[in-house]
Amino acid sequence: MKNADSTQSLSAPKKKQKIGDYLHRYGTLYLLLILPIIYFIIFKYIPMTYIQVAFKKYTIIKSAWEMPWADNNGLEYFIKAFSNRDFLYALRNTIMLNLLDLVVGFPAPILLALLLNELRIKWFKKFTQTVAYLPHFLSWIIISGMAVQLLAPSSGLLNILLNRMGIESVPFLNSSIHWVFTYVFLGIWQSVGWNTIIYLAAITGINPELYEAAAMDGAGRFRKIWYVTLPSIRPTIVILLILSLGRILGSEFDRPYALGNNLVKDVSNVIATFVYTYGIRGLQFSLTTAVGLFQSAVCVIFLFMANGLAKKFGERGIM
Q1: Are residues 193 and 135 in contact, defined by beta-carbon separation less than 8 angstroms?
Q2: Domains, in order of start, for the chain
Q3: Per DSSP, what are the bridge partners of residue 189?
Q4: What is the model's pLDDT at position 11?
Q5: What is the reported pLDDT for 108?
Q6: CB-count burial class (<10 Å; 0-12, 13-18, 19+) for 178
Q7: C-alpha gyration radius of the chain
Q8: What confidence tens digit (pLDDT) does each residue in 269-306 have?
Q9: CB atoms within 10 A of CB 59
Q10: Are the C-beta atoms of 289 and 53 separated by less than 8 Å?
Q11: pLDDT of residue 178
């Protein structure tokens, strides 16, 4: 018994010494985490308490805890949302535009990164990369103004050039089908350069010996891309694809709002603009909170599904 007590008394100071050494070594890192933790608590977790507004009848004179519950066991506003024709159109448009962004826009930065990686003229490579990612720093208000100046049916520069060549004006911003393609194209133009940086960073981490071994086996440039570069950056591609699928029902507000107009409202109205119209302007806070909660829940489900599929195919995923 004395030996056991003595070993316990000796091990306790050792544990305290280890904890002290650990805190002495990494204590500054924990101190640096305090501000981000405070930020997330104040601006992310505390506002989550107002999710209950989706299940209650909103009134400005009461707190979220004191508001009366909505009808149909709190599901009144979810039922109203799914019986609202504008919301159903917004839901359809959100899925359609995000799928087009994913199918057309997701491979674009990968292709651009592969092309830039194959360039041997360094100054031209740097110039191209800079020109490609500069649009990322432009707001959608500026981009929409540029689009009007270039693509307007009668006064747009592009249509003026087409008319002088004997070609009829193209309604890039006034026809629903043309607007959708313009929306997707401008989205790719605005984001492709910035996303390319991520893939170029992954490519620079590839071991050069792999390319040398492929060259010794007689592989040309395209075979090196197919058998060396793409498999090496596949984990990065999978992670970004999972994150993109997690935003399949998410919708940014400024892009469709700035590019949209009354002539293309049937395709430009998305969930974000629906929330703005009915929530901010229409003061239907419970309805739009229910819509936002539904949107977030679906995005989380898609995120977990995409992560599970990635793990089934042997990738690490994000969780």
Answers
A1: yes
A2: 2-55 (no CATH), 76-312 (1.10.3720.10)
A3: none
A4: 59
A5: 92
A6: middle
A7: 27
A8: 999 999 999 988 888 989 999 999 999 888 888 888 88
A9: 12
A10: yes
A11: 92
Q: Which amino acid is at 70?
A: A
The one-letter amino acid at 155:
S
Which residue's entry shows tokens 């990065």? Answer: 236
CA dihedral 261, 265, 267, 272 (to 10 degrees): 90
Q: Please check whether residue 156 is in contact with residue 172, taking contact to mean a CB–CB distance below 8 angstroms.
A: yes
Query: Helix/strand/coil (H, E, C) string of 140-194?
Result: HHHHHHHHHHHHCCCCCHHHHHHHHCCCCCCCCCCCHHHHHHHHHHHHHHHHHHH
Q: What is the DSSP letter of 56?
A: B
Distance between CA atoms of residues 176 and 256, nearest Å:
13
Query: Torsion angle, CA of 116/119/124/129, rounded to 10 degrees?
Result: 10
- Would you call 69 helix, strand, or coil by DSSP? strand
Beta bridge partners of 56: 69
Q: What is the largest CA-CA distance in the chain?
A: 103
Report the pLDDT averaged over residues 140-150: 92
How far, in whole angstroms, is CA 272 from its chain's centroid?
14
pLDDT for 232 beyond 60: yes
